[in-house]
Amino acid sequence: ELVNFNEFFAYILDRFDMMLKKEKADAKDTDGKVVKNYRIKRIFTQKDLWVEIDTDKMTQVIDNIVNNAIKYSPDGGVITCRLLETNKHIIISISDEGLGIPRKDIKKVFDRFYRVDKARSRKQGGTGLGLSISKEIVEQHKGRIWVNSAEGRGSTFYISLPFDPNETGGEWDEI
Ligand code: ATP
Ligand code: MG
């Protein structure tokens, strides 16, 4: 499916904003319930970027990375989402101000069932499959996924996907 990636990415992040709003409203009704707060900041290119993707699968990838960013961040963390383009690729990045990933674990976080520090992860819940599935999906799209992180200072996950900068999504821009 050919999608305008700006809209596609924005729509996914809108859902996170709405989910948080709803959780906060629900928590007010059932007082005592604690909601993990976060703020999503968007830095997107203004250009339309038309990319051929499997929207369900790519939604799963972005959902997982944003969920991780929330899960492994302290309360009130800022999650910065960027979208930019190079000659032949779009690049998405998702940065958090969370726990970060120790250098020795960086290469392994995309492995099946791998979770950094069993003790810290157990409390959080999860299977350790999210990133390995994400990697598989990104590679099915001929893209790449990688991470930059410093322990205690946060992580940035990157995805690059091939795209054709001349693609206009079928609009009649030349008559
Ligand atoms: P699942 O996604 O299956 O529910 P999970 O979140 O533990 O479980 P992955 O998404 O594959 O599994 O992530 C693997 C591990 O990488 C996590 O357990 C965590 O230790 C580490 N990790 C992933 N994202 C972050 C992040 N943003 N900050 C710090 N650590 C992270
Ligand atoms: Mg996960």
Folded structure, characterized:
The protein is an alpha+beta fold. 34% of the residues lie in helices and 26% in strands. It has 4 helices and 7 strands, in the order E-H-E-E-H-E-E-H-H-E-E. It is globular, with a radius of gyration of 17 Å. It starts with a strand and ends in a 13-residue tail after the last strand. Magnesium ion is lined by residues 64, 67-68, 126, 130. Residues 1-165 form the Histidine kinase domain. It comes from Companilactobacillus versmoldensis DSM 14857 = KCTC 3814. This is histidine kinase. It is found in: Cell membrane.
Number of strands: 7
Alpha carbon gyration radius: 17 Å
Helical percent range? 25-40%
What profile does the largest beta sheet have? 5 strands, mixed
Number of helices: 4
What is the strand arrangement across the widest sheet?
2-4-5-7-6
Intertermini distance = 25 Å
Structural class: alpha+beta
Order of SSEs, N→C? EHEEHEEHHEE
Low-confidence stretches: none
- The pLDDT mean sits at 92
Hetero ligands: adenosine-5'-triphosphate, magnesium ion
Portion of residues in beta strands equals 25-35%
* Approximate shape: globular
Describe this structure in a few short sentences.
By secondary structure, this protein is of the alpha+beta class. It is built from four helices and seven strands; from the N terminus they run βαββαββααββ. Helices cover about 35% and strands about 25% of the residues.
